[in-house]
Amino acid sequence: MLRKSLAVGPVGCNCSVVVCPVTHEALIVDPGGDAGRILALLPKLGARPVGIVHTHGHFDHILGTREVAMATGAPVSIHADDLDLYRGLVRQARTFDLVVDEPPEPSQILAGGEILPFGQLQARVLHTPGHTPGSICVFIEATGEAPLLLAGDTLFEGGIGRTDFSGGSLEQILHSIRDTLFKLPDETVVVPGHGPETTIGEEREGNPYVGRRASAG
Ligand SMILES: [Zn+2]
Ligand SMILES: [Zn+2]
After folding, report:
1. Which of 6, 118, 143, 207 could form a disulfide with 203, with the two C-beta atoms 3.0–4.6 Å apart?
2. Which fold does the domain 2-206 belong to in CATH?
3. For residue 215, what pLDDT is reported?
């Protein structure tokens, strides 16, 4: 797979463009701002977006959605349990003194377990609640290379997502990471919602909150 991730928007949300190398159909995950930079990347990758996927409904993962959706015509998706957050983008942004337009109404409401095809590749939607009720991770496998996990704000290098926002749950995020994400192959490359990339193997071993060395429980 072809893939480019870039930190966008006011708090450096990692937006990823993942491209099928054969057909050049592509998914855009978390267009969190700087729509112009995301759109400029598409011709460089030869990408033809067929979907815009959100890992969750926080404003910093949505700020570029409207512009990217209008420019590409790609359908927008988000998990059902984060629809209220998504539709509340204007209100969320206002608390950070940002004035934005409403995001487009999603054309696909996710429940978890969906397969999102793009070209000859497929992305699997994993429902991983905890940071928000409708947090998802996007898992993509391709023959002969390490799988890719776009983890949103669920799992970070050496960290886990905050659970002190409304709708957050520490118990749920620990369950999501241990029983869903840590079942993925060691070599899976993890692109978190913010900050550096890591792998499932490294986090399962060394993550101080949920790794093997974290206090038992
Ligand atoms: Zn978030
Ligand atoms: Zn975030």
Report:
1. 207
2. Metallo-beta-lactamase; Chain A (3.60.15)
3. 65
